[in-house]
Design a protein that fits this description.
The complex is a heterodimer of chains A (112) and B (113).
Chain A: E1 4-7, E2 10-13, E3 19-25, E4 31-37, E5 43-50, E6 56-57, E7 68-72, E8 75-80, E9 89-97, E10 100-103, E11 107-111
Parallel strand pairs in A: 2-11
Antiparallel strand pairs in A: 1-3, 3-8, 4-5, 4-9, 5-6, 7-8, 9-10, 9-11
Chain B: E1 3-6, E2 11-14, E3 19-21, E4 23-26, E5 32-38, E6 44-50, E7 56-59, E8 62-65, E9 75-77, E10 86-93, E11 102-103, E12 107-112
Parallel strand pairs in B: 2-12
Antiparallel strand pairs in B: 1-4, 3-9, 5-6, 5-10, 7-8, 8-9, 10-11, 10-12
The chains are: A mainly beta (112), B mainly beta (113).
């Protein structure tokens, strides 16, 4: 099973700043996924990141707010830009391996 | 679009009680269905899955049967333990891309000794 490491595990940020979250997988994967879990809410897919191409964003999410990089088959970053308190959430990285999705521990972001 | 609806929580049970967490879905085509669990302080883990109608997924004493006629995937366990206290998420994926999941709102289960 895939092992996913996310950094940072948590952060408190000032509004108007940006935070970049890193996701490292212990095996090569074609697609990586970024989810958001707002307080008391379910998980919502932000975007799908393929190596060598631009990320595909879900409805309601835009590249200017959540730019994603995917430089190789084991690594991706998600940036939360120009943050506001509404961005306070847990952000999770996920990969799909043999019809099962694996998740990182998540990054708990608080914007003050 | 596709969606998943779970029963609202929190659910509080005594140890050894029977557990049911309801999950219904709306989807075009033939989705695969999943239950994920999030233990306190831990990441999301796959609990069980079913990929076609009438399939039964099972793991750690938990079971769920894919019911196409009622579009349901209810989670059951005959005798819960304190260690089962967690948040449970029902989810579906509409195609072969099992990484692209649609989640229900989650149900918090608290089991008391």
């Amino acid at each position: 099973s895939a092992v996913i490491s996310q950094k940072p595990s948590r952060d408190i940020c000032q509004r108007g700043t940006s935070l970049t979250i890193q996701c490292q997988v212990d095996s090569q994967v074609t697609m990586m996924f970024w989810y958001r879990q707002q307080p008391g809410q379910s998980l919502t897919l932000i975007a799908t990141a393929n190596q060598g191409s631009e990320a595909t964003y879900e409805s309601g999410f835009v590249i200017d707010k959540f730019p994603i990089s995917r430089p190789n088959l084991t690594f991706s970053t998600l940036t939360v830009s120009n943050m506001s308190p509404e961005d306070s959430s847990i952000y999770l990285c996920s990969v799909d391996e043999y019809t099962e999705a694996f998740f990182g521990q998540g990054t708990r972001l608080t914007v003050v | 679009g596709d969606s998943v609806t779970q029963m609202e929580g929190p659910v509080t049970l005594s140890e050894e009680a029977f557990l049911t967490i309801n999950c219904t879905y709306t989807a075009t085509g033939y989705p695969s269905l999943f239950w994920y669990v999030q233990y306190p302080g831990e990441g999301l883990q796959l609990l069980l899955k079913a990929t076609k109608a009438d399939d039964k997924g099972s793991n750690k004493g938990f079971e769920a049967t894919y019911r196409k006629e009622t579009t349901s995937f209810h989670l059951e366990k005959g005798s819960v333990q304190v260690s089962d206290s967690a948040v449970y998420f029902c989810a579906l994926t509409g195609g072969s891309n099992t990484g692209k999941l649609i989640f229900g709102q989650g149900t918090t289960l608290q089991v008391k000794p």
